C-alpha cells in the first residue's frame, strides 16, 4: 500500500471530525459495506470499523449477526492471496497458519 489510500472525514454525534482510511468496500448478502481504519495523528490505527453503505450514507451496524457475517467475509478476503502473489511458487510462510488475525 502506498500513501494514496482514500481518506474520508466523518462527523460523530457531537459534530467532531474524525479521519478514516478506506480499507475496503465489499458486498455481503446484496448489501455494500465499507471497512474503515481510523487515522490518529496522521497514522492508521490497528483497529477497523465497518459501516453499511446506503446510497451516500454510512450506517452503523447494530445487528450482531449482520456484523459478524461482514467481518468473516472481510477476513476471508484478507486471507486470499493478492493478484501480485498469485501464480508464483507456493508461499512457504503459510505453514502453520490459522484463522486468527495476523
Automatic annotation (TrEMBL):
Q: Pfam families this protein is in? A: DUF1292
Q: Which InterPro entries match?
A: UPF0473
Region Disordered: start-end pairs: 75-102
Tell me which domain of life the UniProt entry assigns to the organism this sequence originates from: Bacteria
The protein in question is named: DUF1292 domain-containing protein
Amino acid at each position: 500500500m502506498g500513501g494514496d489510500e482514500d481518506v474520508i472525514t466523518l462527523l460523530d454525534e457531537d459534530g467532531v471530525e474524525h479521519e478514516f482510511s478506506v480499507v475496503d468496500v465489499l458486498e455481503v448478502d446484496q448489501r455494500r459495506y465499507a471497512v474503515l481504519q481510523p487515522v490518529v495523528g496522521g497514522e492508521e490505527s490497528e483497529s477497523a470499523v465497518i459501516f453499511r453503505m446506503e446510497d451516500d450514507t454510512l450506517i452503523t451496524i447494530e445487528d450482531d449477526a449482520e456484523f459478524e457475517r461482514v467481518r468473516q467475509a472481510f477476513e476471508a478476503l484478507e486471507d486470499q492471496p493478492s493478484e501480485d502473489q498469485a501464480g508464483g511458487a507456493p508461499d512457504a510462510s503459510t505453514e502453520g497458519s490459522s484463522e486468527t488475525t495476523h
